Description:
The structure is a single chain. It contains seven helices and no strands. With 170 residues, the protein is an all-alpha fold. The protein has one domain (2-167). α1 packs antiparallel against α6 (115-135), α1 packs across α7 and α4 (68-90) crosses α6. The termini are far apart. The model has no long low-confidence stretch (mean pLDDT 85).
Amino acid sequence: xxxxxxxxxxxxxxxxxxxxxxxxxxxxxxxxxxxxxxxxxxxxxxxxxxxxxxxxxxxxxxxxxxxxxxxxxxxxxxxxxxxxxxxxxxxxxxxxxxxxxxxxxxxxxxxxxxxxxxxxxxxxxxxxxxxxxxxxxxxxxxxxxxxxxxxxxxxxxxxxxxxxxxxxxx
Length: 170
């Protein structure tokens, strides 16, 4: 069940990450809550980890709805840190605090300075990573290749939506 949920969240991020900023920050909050609960509480039943993830997601979505400037920095940091940890794990490495910190700072600065384009790229990367995780692939090459394809598709879809909304004045 959790793999299906992760795949659905990933697909939503690939397509709607820029269009629905609150969804992006909510999903990032969910992922951060999940990672934090695993880090602080260790092995726990899935319902505890998912509850912590949902709490993080709700906080993220509320931040995005009511405090957008704070959500940009916090969401960018959480997205960058989450991606850095996921990508190092996908490459068979163990990402630590420094990797997460560097990824978080890069994500926060990118989202703050280049909002639309950074949001498109970050949400596509997060969405692709979630789908790869849901598939449960363990080898290095297939997931990286598939991630590149997923990210390219996500960037193309979201760029087209962005250009369409700018032409239409929305």
